[in-house]
Queue: 3 jobs
Job 1
Amino acid sequence: MKVEIEELCKIKPCQQRIWYYTKENKKVILLVDKTLTECGVNEETELEMKDLGRQLPYRFVYLLEYIGPLVLYFIPFFILKSLNRTILYQQYMALFLWVVHYLKRILETIYVHEFGDNTMPYNNVFKNCTYYWGFALAVSINVNLFSRQVPDLFVSICACAMLISIVSNGYCHLLLKWLRPPGTQIRAIPKGFLFEYVSCPHYFCEIMTWVFFNALTGFPFFGVLFSLCGIYQMREWALQKHQRYYREFPDYPKNRTVLIPFLY
């Protein structure tokens, strides 16, 4: 159907969002991996379509978002090195962990993540990259040029905890990937590991990753600000996912919290 719309209206399939309203006035968006019949469409259904404008693949945008911080973080570090100032153990460790974190994100984007919506609006790339790239540069300047020294032992402990959080986050993403058959948008109740206690443990592990990063770098202002912005957004996403699980699955475990095990 989207191909026919493209021929008629000259609107590419990726720019089309098609939906209809049920008798209960519930909006149902047509999914790309389902037939019209599977989506509940019949001869009497009145479909609506919106032109979403220029689109970019989600995977491409995510790669841009993550490659930028990976590269930009090195600039203040090399400035520090060129000034012949002593490079602290915590600054070396912060650089290493930053690289590990963003390399993991890039690899996950290529090999792990399945994107329900295949594209996002073209203009979003500028907003998203400004956020990630700007904060990456600000955090690196803060950590490498204006940092407060932290005891090496404490840095090592926090670094180990951060690595555990990174690995745990990655494992949660793999569990979500294994839950969904390749090439489909089928949803099921996540199980295993931290999913037994919380609806979105991948967000919880991401939050802990940045808590430990800030701790080992002396809680830099821009590092804390970046984390708070991320926590706010992840809380919103987690709450939406938690509520959607309850709507879609009547047997969803009642003991699971939204974001933080046993607390929230």
Job 2
Amino acid sequence: MDTMLATKQGMQQTFVNNARVGASVLMAGPCVVTQVKSEKKDGYWGVQLGLGTRKIKNTTKPLQGHLKGVTDKTGTPRFLREVRLKEEPTQKIGEVIKVTDVFAEGDTVDVTGVSKGKGFAGGMKRWGFKGGPKTHGQSDRSRAPGSIGQGTSPGRVWKGKKMAGRMGNSQVTVKHLRVISVDADKNTLSLSGPVPGIPGGLLVVKRVNERKEEPSE
């Protein structure tokens, strides 16, 4: 298992090699296994992980039936995400996965989440356009996008043209962040650099470095 679910807590400053760096603090787990996928039945190997708690009265009846094996008096898992595996999983339904079972200090991880929504944004904010000239009689072109294409040929705007539109609120993956520290008591994970989303938002953290096996004596 190389993936866990986490929620963003915020950012802080820490020192790494006598240099001050910004660190993101995540509440990673504990995650509970809610479903196990098999290659024979489903066509691939994988596990479904649950994180957090939701009141039973706020959970739909079909989902209550799906989570029957991991539901207790406190409620059902709030977040559910599936993780594909390259080999047959050893985890069982109801098994709890802690942060120290997956990550260690010095690991490299990729973090996926939904970025903050910015609403309808112009070309300068959304794509970093320079804008028009501030002189030569220009009065209302300072933040305009400028030309959006050619003339009679092709006579249309090319698909994918960078223009004003909705910004943010999309899935973003930040790659190759380093694990600065792991706190087993608080279930927290400290990563170098920022991660997408709002505080309390769901994140999928995947370890991408290969662990070196200890030489046998």
Job 3
Amino acid sequence: MRATRLVATLCLALLSVPACAQRLAVEVENFSTPGPCAEEDNVSFALSAAAVGRFRIQALHPPYVNAIRIDSSAPDFSGCNFGKTPHPTDPRHVFVPRTVTLYDGRDIAIVGITFASFWRPHRVPVTVAGRADAGFHLIQVFRKSGRTRTEVLVLYPADGYWRAKPLPARHLGVNAYGSSFLLGPIEQEGRPVVNIARIEIEPQPLAFTLHFTGGGQATVAITEISDMRTALDVRFLPAYDAKRAFAMLRSMYVADDNADASEVTWTTGPAGEAIRKPVMAVTSMQATAVRFGRTVRSRHNTSAPDFLFDAFEAPATEGTAPTGKKPG
């Protein structure tokens, strides 16, 4: 009975998509490979379409969140063959570390961090509320409430990776990150990346504008930060004009109870049936909405969010231009 309720909850969330005259179905391709290590991203799903101008990403609590009593977010290297240093074969480029508060408002704080070392040699220039900086390896977004600051969103500008999570469930107090995602032209450079030339951030209302090195841009508006979800509305300008990956979900799966994403659930139309399968059991699908997550409680990053990609829309008529390449 509990499993049935969880699936019903998942499907209801998946199907709650606002009506839109130009809603699209996109192709979702699975590039995942089995693996024993809980600290490696072996799950990859690429989203592509003939043309897309806009879509939405939501970070949602897993359906079992209210049943969590003990959360586990500690690293698990037990199945890894590289000790306690993820990606030991990556290049190591050295920087002068620093942490800068870029914005500190009533509800939102934005912080930039430069690491002592990173696997890519460059940093991406960023402007926050008109204040320009040479760039950082990590941009953090915090939701403020009184004296409490809760991190809900991060972007790694140098390789284009994002992480997001809703505000924690009240009985937990804190929650974990899990899966990450890319948005924009996906390229393969040792691993999937998005190459960003520069970033502009407006804190009120909160929005990122990403200028891609190959041309084109994306505006990412953070439309909700709550204990239900963190939601991102993504618009491309110019829009994609050919069949190519415009977004990717990156995650980890070792077993159903040791995963950041163990299942994929999708619909093929506004009234279509929700189909749910294990992440390693699918190759590709056409979807108007797709959710990557868990109904089996994971012992690793137990509270980490599910991710729902939906509200895909055709581009506006003002023209399109190619951006990015499909991952090989």
